Amino acid sequence: HQVSIIDTPGHVDFTMEVERSLRVLDGAIALFCAVGGVQPQSENVWHQSEKYSVPKVAFINKMDRVGADFFSVVEQIQTTLGANAVPVVIPIGKEDYFEGLIDLVYMKALMFDDASKGQTVVEADIPESMMEEARKWRANLVEKCAEQDDVLMEKYFEEGELTTEEILRVMRSATIKRAVVPVYCGSAFKNK
Question: Which pLDDT value is given to residue 29?
Fold first, then answer.
């Protein structure tokens, strides 16, 4: 199985190129600015991708910029685009203090090493100060997964939790079916 990556500019001048690309894609990564959020052209490209039934993952970039707001952009993806946006990670800090991510599937912190310009990622325990927020967003992830599968919904009502394997399996199948849009974040410029 061969994988090809097609990078299409989102600018309105490239609408036809984007349209041609979307016809042949198996999936897409939709990039959003952590400051600007869902812009009108992002909305246009999103609707083009829906026209061709393209599964998507959202990546909220520029978490290191002044005014970055991950949760606001997640909400915009839900309200403006009507997508079932489900954070799979949440940021640790923002702007100058963007240090890493909390992986909600594995409930671990991933810290980016500034000395290596983000090339080294250190797995750590979730900071105590963020544990409550991490649990809240983990519960959201588990609930969104349970909604996709009747058997898992029953298990969720009984136990209130799903296994890592169940979450990964359901998120994959639900993403392919376009029932959910997993949301990630980072700062591409700083390799985070």
Answer: 93
